[in-house]
Each structure stands twice: as C-alpha cells, then as structure tokens.
Amino acid sequence: MFDNLSDKLDKALHVLKGHGSITEVNVAETLKEVRRALLDADVNFKTAKEFTNTVKEKALGQNVLTTLQPGQLMVKLVKDELTELMGGETAGINLSGAPTVILMSGLQGSGKTTFSGKLANYLKTKKTKKPLLVACDIYRPAAINQLHVVGDQIGVEVYSEPENKNPVQIAQNAIAHAKQNGFNVVIVDTAGRLAIDEAMMTEIANVHKAINPQETLFVVDAMTGQDAVNTAKAFNDRLNFDGVVLTKLDGDTRGGAAISIKSVVDKPIKFIGTGEKMDAIDVFHPARMADRILG
Ligand code: GDP
C-alpha cells in the first residue's frame, strides 16, 4: 500500500541518510523531493507546501545540520509532521444518546452500505452494542436488498420500508422502532448518487436535521484521489460531519486522500475500510498511517 509515496519519500530521505554532514541546501533539496512525492500521491498543493515549510522550519530550529544523525532526525520530523497532519491522535466515535444515532453519507459506490454493515458488526462484537441498520435509499430497491444481505451476514436486524418514499419518515420510524425494541445504536444508510447533486444534498440535509445524529460519518473511496477531497468539502459544507471513513485502502491506492482530507475539511478520519468482508474495518491511526506512507 502507498508504495509510490513511500518509495519516493524513502529515496528523498535516503539522500540525507547517506550524508555524514549535510547542508541547508541538502535539506531544501530533500524537502523538495518530499513535496513532489506528496503531490504525486494527490495531496493538494497547498497542503504539501505547508507541510514541507513546517518540516523545514522545525529542522532548522532543531539544528538538524549539526546533529550526529541528521537523516534520522529528518525522518522523524517528516513522520511526526505527517502524523500531525492526519490528526495526531486516534479520533473516537461518540456513542452517547439513547439510542446513539449514526448517519452515513457519501457518494454511491463509496462503500457506504458495506461500511454500515462493518460498523454494526464492529459495535456489536467490540463494544457489545445492539445495533439496528436502516435502509434509507428510496430510489434503488437493490440498495435496500443489499443492506438486508449485509444484515443477514452479521446477524443484525435491518429496518426498511420499501413502499415509503420519504427518507425522513423512514429514519424517524426506525429510531422509534429502535427505542421500542431495545436497540441502542441506529445506523442510517442513505442514498448516494454518482456525483454531487443538489437533490441528494437537500435530502440528506433534511434527514440530518430531523434525526439530529450523534455521529455523521462521511464515507469516501480512497482511490478517488483529489476528487475525494472535493467531495468531502461539498458534504461537509452541507452536513458539518463529525468524521471521515476512508474505504478501499486495500486497493492500489494513493495516500493523498488520507493526508489532504483532514487538512481541507478539518475533520478527523475515524475508520478505514480494508476489504469487502465484514471484518475489514479498522480504527484510523494517524501514526500508523504515517509509518505506512513513509515505509
Ligand atoms: P455504496 O453505494 O456507497 O453503498 O457502496 P457499496 O457499499 O455498495 O460498495 C461499493 C463496492 O465497493 C462494493 O462492491 C463493495 O464490496 C466495495 N467495497 C466497499 N468497501 C470496500 C473496501 O474497503 N475495500 C474493497 N476492496 N472494496 C470495498
């Protein structure tokens, strides 16, 4: 994973590792390579530039040039800064509320339905919760069926009203159903479109307003690179979501989305999806991700 970025950073930093003594020019040149590697991995320009400027300032501030192992110090600085850029600490999920209501948002194909199932499974097994999945896609009957299949796989009940064309009502009825039947987490899967669309945004904003969720998660396909950042921004402008789920990190994907999204929308990445199976879910660890990116 992230071989491109990691290899390039490795090469860039190798220049420093190999030098007994280095100059300010070496630092600048290495950081130029680091910046190029970040840009190649689809990190947006502003983020990459700010990143390298910060590392440079810190490097010079810590007298990296006069230390015995300047290369190692630089590697540490780059890693620490990359970790910070992705949020520093692991961000938790808010499980308050009776029941906790979690709203899933994102484009069609991002992995929303799959992730809804994974999250239900995760909460059930790791946090001993009793989740209810809710199918709120009123356009694609196949989407409702898909959630039922997922629910069957993990043994979690799925609430749906195939005849009802009002997603706000479905979500509200589902919460009432949860309260009456002892479910303490309600995960609402919503309709997505292939691209940002005003009708979809208005619909999910209405559902959001009506059910006032504890957590609104934005699901995005990590393979979509710079587009992931633009989509995140559009959804965040409407929903002011609480966290990001980065899916398909098992694929031949670039690391750019993970790095840029946090800095552009200033919301933490909370979970990652690493496969199609129901247990392919992980809490997002910024430091671990930085390690993986840098190799
Ligand atoms: P939705 O339209 O947003 O609900 O997206 P789906 O949940 O239907 O996912 C779209 C496709 O991506 C499906 O074929 C999923 O199996 C696949 N998918 C979802 N998450 C992951 C992931 O983390 N890794 C991989 N490799 N595939 C995923």
Automatic annotation (TrEMBL):
Transmembrane segments: none
Keyword Glycosyltransferase tagged: no
Enzyme class: hydrolase
Chief location category: cytoplasm
Keywords: Cytoplasm, GTP-binding, Hydrolase, Nucleotide-binding, Ribonucleoprotein, RNA-binding, Signal recognition particle
EC number: 3.6.5.4
Domain called SRP54-type proteins GTP-binding: residue spans: 268-281
UniProt: GTP binding residues: 106-113, 189-193, 247-250
Record localization: Cytoplasm
Reaction(s) catalysed by this chain's protein: GTP + H2O = GDP + phosphate + H(+)
Domain notes from UniProt: Composed of three domains: the N-terminal N domain, which is responsible for interactions with the ribosome, the central G domain, which binds GTP, and the C-terminal M domain, which binds the RNA and the signal sequence of the RNC.
Quaternary organization: Part of the signal recognition particle protein translocation system, which is composed of SRP and FtsY.
Family per record: Belongs to the GTP-binding SRP family. SRP54 subfamily.
Its job: Involved in targeting and insertion of nascent membrane proteins into the cytoplasmic membrane. Binds to the hydrophobic signal sequence of the ribosome-nascent chain (RNC) as it emerges from the ribosomes. The SRP-RNC complex is then targeted to the cytoplasmic membrane where it interacts with the SRP receptor FtsY.
Protein name per Swiss-Prot or TrEMBL: Signal recognition particle protein
Organism, scientific name: Aequorivita iocasae
Gene from which the chain derives: ffh
